[in-house]
Amino acid sequence: MEEKFIIVCTVDGETTSIPHSTQKEALHQAEKLLREHGCDLEITLHMDEISPPPCIWFNRKRMRQWCLAGFPTVRI
User: Fold this and answer.
1) Which of 2, 34, 40, 58 has its CA 20 to 30 A from that of 9?
2) What's the rounded Cα separation, in Å, for the pair 59 and 45?
3) Rounded to the nearest 5°, which phi and psi values hold at 7?
């Protein structure tokens, strides 16, 4: 089974899920959204399927910290 990375974000009350085939693509999309909407954007990164906490790969808090740190390289 091929890995799938899913970005889930809520903008203006509308929640969207965006699948990506690589971690790099997903993080690039997350960075783009955070730059556009700010570090307080409600955004998470899931692997393979949309999961409840604590199974989320990058929760909202970690995304915010990553954004505030200037989007350093992620090593998972």
Assistant:
1) 2
2) 7
3) -90, 130
Q: DSSP H helical segments within the chain, as ranges?
A: 23-37, 60-68
Token readout for 58 is 């990058």
* Mean pLDDT taken over the chain: 90
Structurally, how many domains does the chain consist of? Answer: 1
In a domain, 75, yes or no: no
Phi, psi of 16 (to 5 degrees): -130, 140
* Nearest 10 degrees: Cα torsion 22, 70, 58, 2: 0
Burial code (b: 16+ CB inside 10 Å, e: under 16) for 32-57 equals: ebbeebeeebebbbbbeeeeeeeebb
Q: What's the pLDDT at 51? A: 80
Q: The pTM is what?
A: 0.87
